[in-house]
Design brief:
Blueprint lengths: L6 H10 L3 H7 L23 E2 L5 E2 L8 H14 L2 E5 L5 H15 L3 H5 L11 E5 L13 E7 L2 H7 L5 H24 L7 H7 L2 E9 L11 E4 L5 E6 L5 E4 L12 E3 L7 E5 L1 H6 L9 E3 L7 E9 L5 E2 L3 H7 L7 E2 H8 L19
Length: 364
């Protein structure tokens, strides 16, 4: 017989006891509990969304005669969509396939093996296992479990990250960083800045590898895997599996679609998804767009995604670049310390791009 959860014992079972959405589904759930029912305006209409059939950008061409053309593709996507896919990125395709298997195997572990990393009891401040985004503040919970691993250095990661996933995750991080630096050189170069390594070091000082798990859902039309939000950091690198479910909102009319339209970013074998974070939007004085995005659940097969978040140093002062402000004539964002922005971002439920209001000069 399928279990029956009221809001109180569901919250305890899923969140406090660390069973997650997977534990709830494994218990034989046959319908979506009330706590996960999204209001109609937040639900994702899969049939109404168009798949964005853009070919991935070939990063190997950045090192050859087609550099300028490829750089222009990157800039155009960052200006209009905030999302693009890349191939020949330097991360071995075999590693990407292995990562998906490693993630599925980790979330397939018994709950007690994962719940030891809940924030309240985790043996390491670098590792957090949880569910949804901000369960204590959300009106409707997100259909997602995750493990988050902060990177400080290789030795601490090897000692403190979960044994089942640390090797693949570290290699993923290590092989991605050259690509991240190249992308930042292109994006900042287009703004009239030739960034020194030290500048890029500050912008990607904090790194986190997450593994997200979206269990099968009895009725995906009523739920979301992740609600509407933009990423708060610099750049996010995302490995999708083959199932799909990532949707991006078009901010302004462009070659990519109409303002306000939601489009699906379909998985491409061997590709990584890049998305622009809030810090790049602020540094560019709004020229580049951090992408508002969300994730749909599925009823047929559990899905995984594996992002790397790159975030500036916590004490860094962030503001629009002077070269851009001089050209634009005014700044859209005030200067702030990154740690204050993070406190605001992680203290609230997902709500589109509202997090940018913290820095916006004209925010209501």
């Amino acid at each position: 017989m399928a279990p029956s959860f009221d809001d109180s014992n569901l919250f305890n079972f899923v969140v406090r006891d660390g069973n997650g959405v997977k534990g709830m589904v494994d218990a034989g759930l046959s319908m979506v509990p009330q706590a996960y029912l999204q209001p109609p305006k937040e639900r994702i209409d899969k049939e109404a969304a168009r798949k964005l059939g853009l070919p991935p950008i070939d990063l190997s061409k950045l090192d050859g005669p087609q550099h300028d053309q490829v750089a222009e593709e990157i800039v155009r996507a960052a200006e209009n969509l905030g999302f693009f896919q890349v191939v020949n990125h330097g991360v071995p395709v075999e590693l990407l396939e292995s990562l998906k298997d490693v993630a599925h195997n980790f979330f397939g572990l018994p709950s007690e093996k994962k719940s030891v990393y809940r924030a309240e009891v985790s043996p390491s401040p670098l590792v957090k296992y949880g569910t949804s985004f901000m369960p204590q503040k959300e009106k409707a919970l997100e259909w997602k479990d995750y493990i988050s691993m902060q990177y400080t250095n290789d030795d601490e990661a090897r000692q403190q990250w979960p044994a089942e996933i640390k090797d693949a995750s570290l290699e993923y991080l290590r092989t991605s960083m050259s690509m991240v630096r190249k992308l930042l050189q292109v994006l900042l170069g287009n703004l009239g800045v030739q960034p020194e390594d030290s500048m890029i070091d500050v912008l990607i000082d904090k790194k986190m590898v997450n593994m997200n798990y979206y269990p099968t859902c009895p009725n995906p039309d009523l739920t979301v895997g992740v609600g509407r939000h933009s990423d708060m950091g610099t750049l996010t690198i995302l490995l999708q599996d083959g199932i799909g479910g990532l949707y991006v909102k078009i901010e302004e009319d462009s070659e990519f679609g109409k303002k306000g339209e939601w489009v699906e970013i379909p998985p491409v074998a061997g590709a990584l998804v890049i998305n622009v974070g809030d810090m790049i939007q602020i540094l560019s004085n709004g020229k580049y767009k951090s992408a508002e995005h969300r994730v749909r659940t599925t009823s047929t097969k559990s899905r995984v995604s594996i992002p790397i978040f790159t975030i500036p140093n916590a004490m860094a002062k962030i503001a629009p670049l002077p070269q851009v402000v001089e050209k634009d004539g005014h700044a859209l964002y005030r200067e702030f310390v990154l740690s204050d922005y993070m406190t605001n971002f992680f203290g609230n439920a997902h709500d589109g791009k509202k997090s940018l209001d913290f820095a916006s000069i004209n925010a209501a």
